[in-house]
Amino acid sequence: MKPYLPILPFLAKYPFLKLAGKFLEFEYGNLDSILKSNDDLVLSAKELGIKIVKSVLEGKICPEIEALKDLNEPFLCEECGVKGCRYKAEDELDRFRFCDYPLHQSEIYYKKLKLAKRIVVAYIFSKIAVSNLNEALRHKFAVREARRYREMLEKESVSFLRVVARDFGIRAKVVDGSFKVDVVDYLKGAVKIKAEEWKLVNRRLEDGFVFLSRREFVRLLEEYLRERLGERIGIKMDLGVRFEAKFEEIDVKDLGIKAECYPPCMKKILSDLRNGLNVPHSARFAIASFLLNIGMSVEDVVEIFRTAPDFDEEKTRYQVEHIAGQRGKGQEYICPSCETMKSYGNCYADDKCSKINHPIQYYLRCVKRKNSKT
Ligand code: SF4
Fold first, then answer.
1. Closest ligand 1 atom, CA of 358?
2. Best residue among 262, 351, 353, 355 to mutate for probing ligand 1, ranked by most atoms within 8 Å of CB
């Protein structure tokens, strides 16, 4: 038997899975024995866990974690023909524990096992470190990490995405490449996404299931994930590090997308695009750079242009990636100032615009106002 074999590379890439907890329990017995262990693997994983949190708060990814995104191992269950696999076990995720996949070189198995153990234990320590942070920093950490995981999940197979959904308790089916998500589970994640197309009235709903494209499904997972990553766990442990003083500053990208706080100029451009009007180049640049600056993904920005009368997906993606700094000199463009917006006839100032000189400033003030009321 090779317990957890099909999922080991995925536990290393996605240690937030509850399944990782089951795996650790199997390997170490209980959490206490990990926390008190002087084992070399545990000690170095502890160091890595702290490094992960520090890097994320600095807006970086530590190299060992960055390298995991290239770990493109197949999901063995997709090709497995082993009779007697407990695929139909009551808890579907339990089946990994009884894996008997015919892998003939045991050193491959032990290599995968060692990596999974290291990263999952590092995740536990990073979780303890995050639990000790104040709310703003926990939010910052969760938003950044959820975004990173979403980018990796976008490249995973449908079978694995179903494992992730199940781990979050999301009831989902896959029909002809589209996902159908139980409406209650859909709403739990979608209520936190402000864009119009996520409102239930704008979705196809049949027999209690909401239809989502693969990309939208992964976006929904990101919301669940953000919640999980920002949760506190009830373990008090002094890891000998303090993050607060150094990382207090909040980045606009970490505030989440709050459509109700878009300035009037951006609302006007968005409404023109939605109505299929031909929006001038200066306004297209302004809305794309604005949305990217506040943290929207390239994919979501490309979708916004879909209703433009001359929409060309390839061209749009190229331009949006360029503005995001993923092409050319690798530098992200900043949204134009109010003065530039005015000079191009793209300004639609309201009374809240009187003391601001940049659309991002308008957005930040609005989000801060709203956050201070909650
Ligand atoms: S003043 Fe600035 S933020 Fe307000 S509508 Fe004009 S360009 Fe937009």
1. 2
2. 353
- Closest atom of ligand 1 relative to the 264 alpha carbon: 5
Residues 219 and 109 occupy one common structural domain: yes
Same domain, 70 and 209: yes
Same domain (yes/no): 184, 261: no
pLDDT band at 127 (very low <50, low <70, confident <90, very high): very high
The 10s digit of each residue's pLDDT in 197-234 is 888 999 999 999 999 999 999 999 999 999 999 888 87
Q: Which residue has the higher pLDDT, 79 or 278?
A: 278
Helices (H), the chain: 8-13, 18-28, 31-35, 40-57, 63-67, 106-131, 135-153, 158-167, 183-190, 214-230, 244-247, 264-274, 281-293, 298-304, 313-323, 338-343, 359-373
Cα 263 to averaged position of ligand 1 atoms, centre (Å): 6
CATH code of 126's domain: 1.20.930
11 lines ligand 1 (CB under 6 A): no
Domain membership of residue 188 as a residue range: 5-247
Q: What are 37-90's pLDDT values in tens digits?
A: 888 999 999 999 999 998 888 888 888 888 888 888 877 777 777 766 666 555
CA 357–ligand 1 middle distance (angstroms)? 7
Judged by DSSP in three states, 43 sits in: helix
Using the mean position of ligand 1's atoms as its centre, give its distance from the Cα of residue 297 in Å: 23
Last residue of a domain, one of 214, 247, 280: 247
Rg of the chain (C-alpha set): 23
Question: Does ligand 1 lie within 6 Å of residue 262's CB atom?
Answer: no
Same domain, 236 and 335: no
Kindly state if the Cβ of 123 falls inside 6 Å of ligand 1.
no
| Helix extents (H) in 17-88 | 18-28, 31-35, 40-57, 63-67
Residue at a domain's end among 247, 277, 309: 247
Q: How much distance in Å is there from the Cα of 340 to the middle of ligand 1?
A: 10
